[in-house]
Amino acid sequence: MSKPNHIDLKRRINVGDRVKFFDKKRDRHYQVIIVCTKRNNPSDGLISFYSYLGSSILGLAEEDIFKLYVLGKEREYKITSISSEKSINPQVHIN
After folding, report:
1. Distances from the Cα of 24 to the Cα of 27, 28, 30, 67, 75, angstroms
2. Which candidate, 84, 80, 82, 83, places its Cα nearest to that of 22?
3. Per-residue pLDDT tens for 33-57?
């Protein structure tokens, strides 16, 4: 039985993670929190792991590139940050 030459220790996206990604073509940054279906609320950045976006990025690592079809057009994004989210409550900004 052969041993792998390289062990991948990269942090992978999982439920409960805050994920930041970048669309270079449109020069836009995005961030979402991956949640279970009961907490799904896209307008607050809470994305179910069963959703199109959630299932597309689950298991990816920082610096990984992924593609999505948005309104019939292929878009390419890069994962820029993955962190554990201590609270999955939507952030409220007070002016």
Report:
1. 5, 7, 11, 12, 10
2. 80
3. 999 977 888 999 999 999 999 999 9
Domain 12-84 = CATH 3.40.50.1820 = no
Instruction: List the chain domain ranges.
Output: 12-84
The whole-angstrom separation of Cα 78 and Cα 62 is 8
As given in the structure block, the two tokens for residue 57 are: 């990025």
The 3-state DSSP class for residue 77 equals: strand
Sheet containing strand 17-23, strands side by side: 46-48, 28-35, 17-23, 73-84, 65-70
Phi and psi at 44, nearest 5°, equal -100, 10
- pLDDT tens digits for 49-91? 999 999 999 999 999 999 999 999 999 999 999 999 876 555 4
